[in-house]
Structures are given as structure tokens and as C-alpha cells.
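User: Here's a protein and a ligand (alpha-D-ribofuranose). What would the complex look like?
Assistant: Let me lay out the input and then the predicted complex.
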Amino acid sequence: MSRIAVVGGINMDLHLFGGRRRSSGAALVVDHYFTEPGGKGGNVARAAARLGAEVRLVARVGDDEFGHRCVDAIAGDGVDVSAVTFSTTTPTGFVAIELNHGLHRTLVFAPGANDELAWEHVEPTLQELTTDEIVVAQAEIPGVVMSALARHVSSSGVRLFLDPTPPEDVDGAAMRAADVITPDRAEAAALVGRTDTSELWPLLAAAELHDAGARTVVVKLGATGAVLVDGWRSRQIPTLPIEPIDETGAGDVFMAALAVRRGEGAGWDDAVRFANVAAALSVASQGLLLPDRATVEAALADAG
Ligand code: RIB
């Protein structure tokens, strides 16, 4: 069984569907909406637990209705939330997500208590980790915590799986400290500092990030799978053809599945294939869909 520690964000998400404006500057009017626990850290932790890992989460929320609802949902999936702390002065992070044909059109993010996560909240958990455990992080945590985390894994030998999102908040030291980075196409473009122009571009960007010191690079391409570059070659790994209804959390499910399979000893190709399928399944309905292990295994078997 994989053992995974997630250091990341928790937010209450507001999903907005069928948005339209009568004129520029007018209110955005939507057909329907709902709120749901989210945040990249919380999503990865829950997804990894449903895929069979032993998971703990380090994060910070407000001591408010949203914070307790999020933490209850995460604990309900079997994640150890004893290292999630509650702020009495700052509200839980909040994200409003406008969806258009299943894809994100606009996002409004209030980081709230995520910005209060400090190294003193994270360090006790990291000190307990053994080198067979994997730490997963994204940049929804303060930069000083990310830098300290990068230094810690470099000296301790614990593997860091880093989703470099948002890419503006990820520096070269963090990417070089990571065992793998998993940008999507737009994030890879931001990391290499160029826009995406050709079919071959994800392979070139992944190779460039690898040359810059990232040990393994996986560029997530949605409907066309993922590009994988490790020490010796580049290849594209396909996924299932699924029409997206709500892409929220797909990257988090991808990361969770990748960490779960690597933690179980799978090679990179197998782990990316598993992650592609898990992420594809996760976009098939409105809201956060976190597939369980049996569902992913069955879809992989069907895909051949
Ligand atoms: O990756 C999806 C997540 O990103 C959402 O749950 C939202 O909270 C944002 O952090």
C-alpha cells in the first residue's frame, strides 16, 4: 500500500454552469450552481485515499462552516486530517469556478487561511516520514513553505511529487527538488516562458524542463493523454475518450493516481497510464468526481 502525505490547499468551491452576460459589464447570470469541498491538496488527498493509499494531509482552513464541511468530507474519505489546523481569524479559502462546456472559463480565488499555512504546521509531519513515503504538493501554499519543503526533501531523500500550479509561484529550486512535476499544457508554457504553437510542442517543453533539472516531467494534455519524459526518452501515453462535463479536480486525480501507483512500485509508463484513466473518469459528471480503485481498474482493463 502507498503511503502519501499531501501538503496543500483546501477551498470551498462554487461551481457555476450555463453562464451568460447580456452585455459586457453586466452581471454574469448562470443556470445553476452548487458549492462543494475542493482545493488541490484536499482533492489529491481524497482521490489518493479512494484509490487505496494511506494518506495524511497538512493544510489550513478557517474555523468556519466551509472549513468544517471541507475537513469532514476529506476525513470521510479516510484521510488522516490530524495535521489540518483551523484559523480563528481568517476564513477558509474559496474558489468560484465558471464552467463552459465542461472546461474552466473563469476562476475567482480567495486564498484565505491557505495563506496562513506555516512551516511550523508542516515540519512535524515531514519529520515523521520515511523514504518509502511520497509527499505531494502544489503551489496553493505560501512560497516560503514551498521553499522549505524543497530543502527538506533534498536533504531527507523523501520523494516530492510537485504539481507546479499556479506556475508563477513555483521556482527552479522546487522543480529540481521534485521527483516529478506534472504541469498541464498552459502551465508548461508558463514554466518554459513561451507560448504553445505546435503539435510537437508538449514534447519539446517537457524535454526542456527535464534539461533544466526536473528529474521526470509529465505534461497533462487532457483528451490526448500525457507526455512523459524521464531520464532517457520521451513518449506520449494515451487516455480514454471522454467528453468533459466538469474538469474540476482532474489534475488532482491525475496526481493522486500517479503517486498511488508509483508508491506501489509501478514504473512511470504504467503509473501515467493509470493516472490518465483515473483523470478521464473524473470529468464525466458535474462536480468533483473521485473514482475508486475498482472503477479505474475496470476502465483500464476495458481499454486493453
Ligand atoms: O484543482 C482543482 C481545484 O483548484 C479546485 O477544487 C479549486 O479549489 C482550486 O484550488
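Summary: The first strand starts at residue 3 and ends at 7.
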